[in-house]
Amino acid sequence: MSKTQQGMGNGQGEKAVSQLRVMSYNIHHANPPARKGVIDLEAIAGVIRNEEPDLVALQEVDVYIPRSGNVHQAEALAAMLGMHFYFARAIDFGGGEYGVAILSRYPLSDTRKVELPKEDSPKAEGRVLAVATVQLPGGQRIRFGSTHLDIQSSANRQQQVQTINAVAASDKLPFILAGDLNDYPDSPAIAALDETFQRTCLVACEATFPQDKPDRIIDYIAFTRSANFKVLAHRVVPERYASDHRPVVAVLGLASAPGTLTR
């Protein structure tokens, strides 16, 4: 099995889009926290379906792991939702693979995985950034990334953000990043993120974790400052069953810019 996989869902419309609905969701390998050992992938699909996102960044995704029924969870969710998908392995786990994924209403290309550094704590779990080009109707293209940063080391998270910043800064296309960054808005890692990206919520933001009584913000959606996007909406979905994180949804208004978006 390849370390990264890609699939396709339904086709795309032809009319150019003026906005994108983006979701970030740590799915806890589709194990509802209140039901130990139970896998409910349909519940995850239902949460996503209800929000009708164009792009979804998923974290804690199982691929062919016995604990979750030896299912390729990214592929299965894409099939349930009629979306394109890309999975990027972070580590081998339990006889299969574990990592992050992208779901998209629109076709994906140029998919790749970026290994993220962990120099401060080399024994920490491997972390990656999944990146894909999203082909929007009307000739528009953007880059979309899904990531899940280290939970152990603040210094590792800073290094990982700096790597993501470098990837995005070197890209001529607008770059949207979403994921579980495992750090608070006032942390050094998020301060580093703000050097390159604009977060979709900066003031009076809702907590995302844990799902039952959320008391911290660790899940984010952001876009490169050069992208010339406008934040039209940002919300945390009040979902308490399907995962130990609440999903985050943002609506971004798109604007054409030379060399990036064309209509």
Summed up, what is this model?
This protein has 4 helices and 13 strands. It has helices at residues 41-51, 73-81, 154-169, 188-196; strands at residues 4-7, 19-26, 55-63, 84-93, 96-104, 108-116, 127-135, 141-148, 175-180, 197-199, 219-224, 230-236, 248-253.
What does this structure look like?
The protein has four helices and 13 strands. With 263 residues, the protein is an alpha+beta fold. Helix 1 crosses helix 2. The N terminus and C terminus are likely disordered.
Summarize this structure as a short list of keywords or feature phrases.
7-stranded mixed sheet, 263 residues, alpha+beta, 4 helices, disordered N terminus, disordered C terminus, 17% helix, 6-stranded mixed sheet, single chain
Task: Give me the strand/helix succession.
Answer: EEHEHEEEEEHEHEEEE
Count of helix runs: 4
Number of strands: 13
Q: Could you report the average pLDDT, rounded to the nearest whole number?
A: 93
Give the helix/strand layout.
Blueprint: E1 4-7, E2 19-26, H1 41-51, E3 55-63, H2 73-81, E4 84-93, E5 96-104, E6 108-116, E7 127-135, E8 141-148, H3 154-169, E9 175-180, H4 188-196, E10 197-199, E11 219-224, E12 230-236, E13 248-253
Parallel strand pairs: 2-3, 8-9
Antiparallel strand pairs: 1-4, 2-13, 3-5, 4-5, 6-7, 7-8, 9-11, 10-11, 12-13
